[in-house]
Amino acid sequence: MENRAVDPDGSIEAAMRSVRNWRGGVVLDVGCGSGFHLPRFAADAARVIGVEPHPPLVDLARRRTAGLGTVDVRRGTAQRLPVPDASVDVAHARWAYFFGAGCEPGLRELARVMRRGGAAFVVDNDATRSTFGGWFRRWLPGYDPGAVERFWARQGWARTPLTTRWACSSRQELEAIVRIEFPADLAEEVLTGHAGTDVDYAVNLFWRTF
To answer: What is the pLDDT of residue 196?
Structure first.
């Protein structure tokens, strides 16, 4: 439900394609979860590999993509990707590399598996702006978004700030998503102060070419 609501205008995908299109290539989705994005990549890519450490989510992703012969879901971690050297054209990690520092082993693995001319993308929250960013800071007041951005810059990654939105089909859907994202007390506070079914949502697209 939340994945359907996020970025209905496709701004994240458009920004990624402007850096490196995956048409006809091999796509790696790191932390693919239940596999929501795998069919979308499979529409253009020659091959899609989803990697997920959590067994129930691996099962869900495999069921979701059972009819797609070009998709392969593997159990594994970012620190030890079950993928050969220099075999990936585009890597994607959406809300899988939080907080920057501590991700170094996974980034070394990306450098191992990426082909020359490929690109890796990390989608993360931008807590410096937007309605959701304000909610995020209330949830984690000690979070330092500047430190996160500096971390990615030190690793040689570029940053593209994007303004997206949640577009929910009903107020009930919005309320359900907010209650997924935040502790109960905070969820009730932000829902009381927010009318409607849409939420402006800022994200950072971190990316690097190889």
So the answer is: 95
CB within 8 Å of 112: residues ≥ 6 apart:
81, 85, 86
Structure tokens at 104: 């170094």
Q: Tokens 């040689």 — which residue?
A: 156
Residues 25-42: what's their mean pLDDT? Answer: 97
User: With b meaning 16 or more CB within 10 Å and e meaning fewer, what string describes 46-62?
Assistant: ebbbbbbeeeebbebbb
Distances (CA, A) of 84 to 29, 44, 143, 182, 210: 14, 22, 35, 38, 16
What digits encode the pLDDT tens for the residues 165-176? 999 999 999 999
Confidence class for position 195, pLDDT limits 50, 70, 90: very high
Would the pTM count as exceeding 0.85?
Answer: yes
- Check: CB of residue 61 under 8 Å from CB of residue 35: yes
Provide DSSP, 98-139.
-SSTT-HHHHHHHHHHEEEEEEEEEEEE-TTSSHHHHHHHHH
Distance between CA atoms of 127 and 64, rounded to whole angstroms? 31
* Torsion of the alpha carbons at 102, 34, 72 and 206, rounded to the nearest 10: -40
Q: Are the CB atoms for 44 and 120 separated by under 8 Å?
A: no
Q: pLDDT-based confidence at 100, cuts 50/70/90? A: confident
